[in-house]
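Re: [help] complex structure
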Amino acid sequence: DAGVIQSPRHEVTEMGQEVTLRCKPISGHNSLFWYRQTMMRGLELLIYFNNNVPIDDSGMPEDRFSAKMPNASFSTLKIQPSEPRDSAVYFCASSVQRNTGELFFGEGSRLTVL
Amino acid sequence: AQSVAQPEDQVNVAEGNPLTVKCTYSVSGNPYLFWYVQYPNRGLQFLLKYITGDNLVKGSYGFEAEFNKSQTSFHLKKPSALVSDSALYFCAVRDRMNSGYSTLTFGKGTMLLVSP
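Output below.
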């Protein structure tokens, strides 16, 4: 299996621009998570989907952030407009939805907003 | 609510020596417990988990962890550290009492540095 695939791996953009991060979960996994990692705040859960439906988006920091999962094999995290404080590594993870299931993480998208 | 504490930001150990990375947790019911490792510029990788049964859990790369219910701890251990074990380690918990949808709560991470 190819694992969780994220793109782009690196993104450098200017403040005010729209950023779209993409994720392909592992086939057969029905839960998908978006996390953000920074030195200051560590690993933060942004949003969580189950069977393509958003279950908990309480971690999404502002209305500038939005996430979609149009089908079982694709999700996007969009930031519009981007700000320098959004600079972080964004991880997508997937799992089979059961309490004993571990998460499988992608390699992350490193975002730098100038 | 569930939470995880990793009291050490960094652990230093010499190669060949045993290592311990500490983790304590808080849940309303019984826990499912996990350890993950993150190498530089990589995503988190699953190491091991405690679900039920034997309190000593063995995982990848020679790591093991001991579940201690009375101390609400799940410390990660390895008998002999390797330089290549140097990485960021995360403990995570999920409350067994949560039915339906539930997520992992991660600790802040502990950087393990193994010196040659």
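The two ends of chain B are 41 Å apart (CA to CA).
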